[in-house]
Amino acid sequence: MPSQLPPPPLAEKLDELAVSRRISDNLAIVHRLFANCGDLKVLPWQFGTGLENGACSIFLDTLVNHRRHNDFKDALQNLTTTRIGPAESVHLEQIVDFFENHGTSEPAAELIDTVDQVVSKMLDGCIVVLIDGWNRALGFQALDIVKRQVSEPITEPNVQGPHASTIEDLDSNIGVIRNLLKTSRLKFHFFDTGENSRRRVAYGYLDHAVKPATLDEFRARLEGIDTEEILDVSYLESWINNKRLSPFPQVRYTERPDTAVAALLEGKIVALINGSPSVLISPANFMEFFVASEDYYYGIVYSTLIRFLRLSAFIIALILPSTYIALTTFHSELIPTVLLLAILNTREGIPFPAMVEALLMEFFFELLREAGIRLPRPIGSAVSIVGALVIGQAAIQSQIASPVMVIVVALTGIASFALPQYNMAIALRILRFPLMFLAASFGGLGIMVGFLLIYLHLNCLRSLGEPYLSPIAPLNARRLRDALFVPSRRHARQSSQKRSADGQRP
């Protein structure tokens, strides 16, 4: 049994340990490394005159298509017959000479020199062939993993435009992007991370569109990441962020290939990882979180109005609860008399001040939102809707919260859902509570101080060296106009060409 083999000495590093000429030595190391792995398969076979030459195929049964192994043996037999000589007269020297001087039998195969490469190829879903008497090995790609079919984007649904999304396969995602952006200027770089996971990471950019300083900063941020266990593309965010404790997102995510292509045309850098369906886009600025790719698939007037609606939703989700607290607690004279009487009438019998009332309702709303996300999809939406109705009605009838407060909290939650980027909505959920405390303590002055602190933080924030508030600060009138008003397709193309020209300048 493999587990009964004596453990071979592994004093040397695997990447420095060459493949041995003896199959038994190589198999002993493989058996030790993959001890207690029930999916390790070793299939011995012979070739040559009288079948005196030994060989074996080693692979992980859970990663490999079994038919590929049989196809490989048939192809090798046909190869030796047609290219080397009759199968019964093939010798080891002829096999070695062919593979070392003429190449492998198929494009997906390559020569292997070290034991570390043998292990890596097996973990990548390859069939590794060891031949007795030869100090090299052959690796044939035979990965057979079930992949998720391309479907509509889950986090970015749309009515108009492409409905394809990225999936968990890195090569497929890059292939889709290259199919949409057919130019040799599109560059992709690959590297592996993690000692155990060995995840393949790729980042791409459009040459002469991305700023060299931005690209250098991105590469500098990723230094040393090859030793980290990266399981999802969102893990890269902590390495790229300029200020990790900032509530505002400094990168964007998308599952839409057209959004990734548009970002590349604007001089952005995209990052992907095998096993993650999302594409990371950096650098990101504040105004980009209110832009959706669907804006460019409708008329200019409608898309511009929708963009202003998103900006209004951002303001509502940020300050509506704190504004209500400040008005009812400190500035009741600013409320029209009829409306003030209506609010006082609904608050009659409420035992809590407006601040405590708002905190309770916000807590219940956040709890329902998390429950709706974590529950299975068929019942998650039903639980969220029914729970909101039941808790809201019960809170009003038991005089824990007033109807106006329920409306304020509901409008705040709906406004946060109107933002295209979910991570910006998370920032609003965090900042809403400090503003509520400032409003309860100092009224309108506290809200102004909170806004001033947020603006100063945004003004100091950088994303890969780029100002986060650009084009607001520093002010760029042309880009600010494009950010607020959806430009025509012709104007958008001219702006993209202008940005590409700016990227060429050192």
User: Secondary-structure element sequence?
Assistant: HEEHHEHEEHEEHHEHEEHHHHHHHEEHH
Average of the residue pLDDT scores: 82
What is the total number of structural domains?
Answer: 3
How much beta, percentage-wise? 5-15%
Spatial separation of the terminal alpha carbons: 64 Å
The total count of helices amounts to 17
Structural class: alpha+beta
Gross morphology: elongated
Number of strands: 12
Helix content: 40-55%
- Give a quick account of the main beta sheet: strands, pairing sense, barrel closure: 5 strands, antiparallel
Low-confidence stretches: 1-11
Question: Which sequence of strands runs across the widest sheet?
Answer: 1-2-4-5-3
Q: What Rg do the Cα atoms give?
A: 31 Å
Family: Belongs to the GerABKA family.
Keywords: Membrane, Transmembrane, Transmembrane helix
Pfam family, one: GerA
InterPro entries: Spore_Ger (IPR004995), UPF0353/GerABKA_families (IPR050768)
